[in-house]
Amino acid sequence: MARPIWSGSVSFGLVNVPVRLYPAVREHKLQFHLVHEPDSGPIGYQKICKAEEKPVPDGEIERGAEHEGAKANEEVVVVAEASRGGVVEQRGGVMADIRLKGKKVAIIATDMVEQVELVEPRKALDEAGAETELISIKPGTIQGFNHFAEADKHEVDRTVEEVDAGDYDALMIPGGVGNPDLMRMDENMVQFVRDFFEQGKPIAVICHGPWMLVEAGIVNGRRVTSWPSLQTDIYNAGGDWVDKEVVVDEGLVTSRKPDDIPAFNAKMIEEFAEGSHARQRGKASAAG
Q1: Which pLDDT band, with edges at 50, 70 and 90, does 87 fall under?
Q2: Spacing of C-alpha 38 from chain mean position
């Protein structure tokens, strides 16, 4: 936890609550948020100042801290675990991680996508504050699958011909046997994936999704995992395949299967929050 820049108390109705004020840097702006001391109980939070271009003078901090009547369920932003950039938001008394607020994430998929590998990571990204878009080969809807059984249809936001990797901060690729097999036959999809890599942007891929990495020529020299049946393809493409629930290699996050989704989501959000990786740029090569 970072050191507080101000300590004092705030009045919530008739109760004075001891608080600490922490800074957090997001989107090149310094934000100040109020955090009540754990021992004081879940009384509430009061926002002092958000997204200031420069530090708030002590006088302004103190004047803000003297405000009364903050509601226990008021929507505010507080800082937690500032040493790793963790930012949480309280909505109606529920604390949620919003480290991806302001980030735009592309999700590529088509028919036969493994439903849970699309829905659960996307939900995690949305809850972390990201704006997500489902991009596919054709407009309309795509058919999700639970292994080999049809599941739900999912609305496509944009087609791959309409988008540019430069408009996004990160890329997520779900699995399903047929999903990446169909996408890797589409030159635009393959180039879209390659563009993220060449721009040094983080990518998270699960299950059969690494087929797209092989096709884009970006696993050479990288340590990755996947559904076990892909390991020969990854080895042949120059990758180092390992059997672990989640592997991180310079902004590239990979996992094996639906059971790994909790670990996958956690590392995906961590890497997406970190942003571009300079060492990742320029390593992609066209697949042979």
Answers
A1: very low
A2: 28
